[in-house]
Each structure stands twice: as structure tokens, then as C-alpha cells.
Write a structure and sequence with these properties.
Length: about 425
């Protein structure tokens, strides 16, 4: 099982008074010095986001094994957490690379030594193209970008043509690997149909500065549940992606190495594996294609959206919890908590009250007949079911299950990590890089 360890790059970083949630005594200490004091969760201030080390390690091992058993590479989407310590957990556990969403995120990952990166987006900014061109001077660096139109290809060519090194010589040491992105009507980005995608593929194959390296797509925008309609739409789309791969194989240079076929968020990964399976089996001896899953939320999982839609939710454990304190009890059936939109995710479901305790880190009692019905910037509305009285008092701390890790981490610079569920010993501080 992969293990989460404090990241050497942040061990000597000094904590400050401005670091949200940390206890006052942490200010001025390095991360290493603070952790050496064996801090307890009860010292931290609310509102707070905390992580569970045992759950993170379990989930990292679970999703990696799931991919290995199906012949899939895992390049998890790093934008979910933007936390290098969590990237390293999965890379050390067998992930072959990292997926990212913006050039700035790519630059951050390179700064932490990540050597295999997929940009699940088009790379068209001239400055970013120049930077990537310089990075490609490192022969060990693997990098792919996506393109979904001829205009995208032309913008990439212009940016690379303008890129030069300090002496004015062309900076691009080798062609930039590009995946043709297939979309679908009503979806997000991506060429709208196989014919359009093939035109783009031919154009990339003819480019002097780009290399046709495979096909890519995102099926998650085609459904938001496990209904038969959503599943059919996702399956049809993935079948088209496989068909596009077959056509691209005839255009790409076989001497340039294996092609990439990539799909898969964390909602429909079972369908990705199922549709890809016959092609993976048929090509097992050829080694001409790498089949890549990009699931990012599976590492943290949640108590909301992904718990409801993930096909492997029973095998994963929610690894994040929110904590907020009761600061007002204006009516019998209403309490206001001190955590809101600036602290906790709310875009894919509101926080779910799990337990209430007299203090942060103390043993809690279940809070079953209550729900969070709304959030403001710094408040959450906790209401009793059907107007029932709430068994909470001013100063109590409510533990909250959260939904959608992708919008949880961006609100925090340092996130305490406890040993396991039920423990209040803080064993790490995860540093985000948003």
C-alpha cells in the first residue's frame, strides 16, 4: 500500500499567523518543528478541513489496483487537490504520470519534479508554449497536450515558431505531442464528431512542430447520474473514442512510440474500462497503445456526489471532513455554523452533518435528524428535520461530510492530516498550490 509521508520540499517552510485554521502557536515554526510537537486536532480553529491518512492510503492503493487489473495506466488529475504530497502518494504507488488542467499547474508540477504530465486542455498561450518548448529539452520529460480544432493547431504552431532560447535559436528540441480531443454535442470541449476529429488529426500529423500522439476525451460532462440515458450516452461516446483511435493509428508515426487513449473521470470509470477492454486485450502483445484513466477524485472520495455516482464507492473511504462551530442558535430548529462557501465545497451538494461534539477533536455523537440547507460566505444553516429541535449548543463543533473534493482543497493553504478516523493526532500538514 502506498504511504503518505511529509513532503521534504515543505518541511522547512515557516508557518504564519495568516495560515487559516492553524493554532496560534504554529506561527513562526517550520512544518517539521510543528509536527514534532505532536499537535492535536483540538488545537486547530474552526472552520477547518481535515484529511484522514489511512483513508488516503487505502484509496490510493484501491484505485491503483483497480486500474492495474484492467490494463489501464493511472494518471490522476492533479487539479483535484493541487497538493504535491498527495501527487507523490499516487506516483510512488504506481501512477505513471499526472494530469493537469492549466499551464500554471504544469509548471507547478515540474517544480516538484513530476516527469510525466498530460495537460487535459489546449495549450495556446505563446508564453506557455515557449516554456513547454524549453522543458522538452529534457529528454526524460513526457508531455502531451490536447487539440480540438484546426484553429488550436494553428495557434500552437505560431507559439512554437516564436519560441526561442536565450541565444535566439529555436527552443523546441522535439515535436510537441498532441492528442486529438473528441467531444460530443452538449458536452464540453472536443471536436464535434469523428469526421471533424480526423481532419484535426491529419493536420497534426502534417505539422513540422507537432506530433500526433493519440486521442483523448472526457465523458463526465455527458451525464450526472447512473440513469440508463446517461450510461448509454457515455458508452456511445467511448465507443466513438475507440473508433477514432483506430483511425489515428493509420496516421501516426509508429516509430514515435505508443499512442495514448485517455478518458475517465471518477464517475464512469467502470464504463471506460468496459468499453476499452476488448481493445486492450486485442493489443496486449503489440504494445502500441497506452490506455490511460485520469480519475482524480477517487483518492479523496466524498460523502456526496461521488459517493452517489462512483461505481466503486463501496471500495473507497471518504478521506476529508469539514468542521464548523455553532455560533448562533436563534430558533429551536435552526443553528448557524461558522463555516461557509469560503471554507467548504457546496457546488455538488451541501455539507452533511455527521456528528456533534463539545470541542474539536472530541468524541462526537451522531447528528442524524439534521441537514445543512444553505450556506453563505462564512455561515452554514443547520436545521432540524421537519423543524425539530436541534441537539446542539453554542460552541459545539459539528463534523461535516463533504461533497466534491475538487472544490474543497482550493480554499485551504495548509490542511491537517490525522492518523485515521477517530484519531485526533495530526501527523502531517498538506500544502496546496492553488
Amino acid at each position: 500500500m502506498p504511504r503518505l509521508a511529509p513532503l521534504a520540499e515543505t518541511a522547512d517552510t515557516r508557518l504564519t499567523e495568516g495560515d487559516k485554521g492553524l493554532p496560534p502557536r504554529a506561527a513562526g515554526l517550520t512544518v517539521r518543528e510543528f509536527l514534532d510537537t505532536a499537535p492535536r486536532l483540538g488545537e486547530f480553529w474552526t472552520p477547518l478541513l481535515a484529511l484522514d491518512r489511512a483513508a488516503l492510503e487505502h484509496n490510493a492503493g484501491t484505485i491503483q489496483q483497480w486500474c492495474d487489473e484492467r490494463g489501464l495506466e493511472l494518471m490522476p488529475h492533479g487539479k483535484t487537490t493541487m497538493a504535491p504530497a498527495l501527487w507523490r502518494l499516487q506516483l510512488d504507488g504506481g501512477a505513471t504520470g499526472l494530469t493537469l488542467a492549466t499551464p500554471g499547474q504544469v509548471r507547478t508540477a515540474r517544480g516538484f519534479g513530476v516527469g510525466t504530465i498530460m495537460l487535459a486542455n489546449a495549450l495556446v498561450a505563446p508564453d506557455a508554449l515557449a516554456w513547454v518548448a524549453a522543458e522538452l529539452a529534457d529528454p526524460a520529460f513526457e508531455f502531451w497536450s490536447w487539440a480540438d480544432s484546426l484553429e488550436t493547431v494553428e495557434a500552437m504552431e505560431r507559439g512554437l515558431a516564436a519560441a526561442s532560447d536565450a541565444n535566439g535559436a529555436p527552443a523546441l528540441g522535439r515535436p510537441l505531442a498532441v492528442l486529438v480531443e473528441l467531444g460530443a454535442g452538449g458536452g464540453r470541449t472536443g471536436a464535434r464528431g469523428l469526421d471533424e476529429a480526423l481532419v484535426i488529426a491529419r493536420r497534426i500529423a502534417d505539422s513540422p512542430v507537432l506530433r500526433l500522439a493519440g486521442v483523448a476525451g472526457y465523458e463526465g460532462s455527458l451525464g450526472h447520474d447512473r440513469s440508463s440515458v446517461a450510461i448509454a450516452a457515455v458508452r456511445d461516446y467511448l465507443a466513438d473514442l475507440v473508433e477514432l483511435h483506430g483511425a489515428v493509428r493509420t496516421l501516426a508515426d509508429p516509430a514515435a512510440g505508443p499512442l495514448i487513449v485517455t478518458a475517465g473521470g471518477s464517475a464512469y470509470l467502470d464504463l471506460v474500462a468496459d468499453v476499452f477492454a476488448p481493445e486492450i486485450e486485442a493489443g496486449a502483445g503489440r504494445g502500441d497503445t497506452r490506455w490511460v484513466l485520469r480519475s482524480g477524485a477517487s483518492l479523496v472520495h466524498d460523502d456526496g456526489f461521488y459517493r452517489g455516482i462512483s461505481p466503486i464507492h463501496r471500495e473507497l473511504t471518504p478521506a476529508m471532513r469539514g468542521y464548523a462551530r455553532v455560533v448562533s442558535h436563534p430558533e429551536p430548529g435552526l443553528a448557524l455554523l461558522d463555516g461557509g462557501k469560503r471554507d467548504l465545497p457546496y457546488d455538488e451538494g451541501l455539507p452533511v452533518p455527521l456528528a456533534v461534539a463539545s470541542a474539536l477533536g472530541a468524541e462526537g455523537r451522531p447528528l442524524d435528524e439534521a441537514s445543512v440547507t444553505a450556506v453563505n460566505d462564512q455561515h452554514a444553516y443547520l436545521r432540524g428535520e421537519a423543524g425539530a429541535a436541534l441537539p446542539v449548543a453554542i460552541g459545539d463543533v459539528v463534523a461535516l461530510g463533504l461533497s466534491h473534493p475538487c472544490t474543497a482543497f482550493d480554499k485551504w493553504r495548509w490542511i491537517p492530516v490525522v492518523e485515521h478516523a477517530g484519531s485526533d493526532l495530526v501527523v502531517d500538514l498538506v500544502h496546496t498550490r492553488f
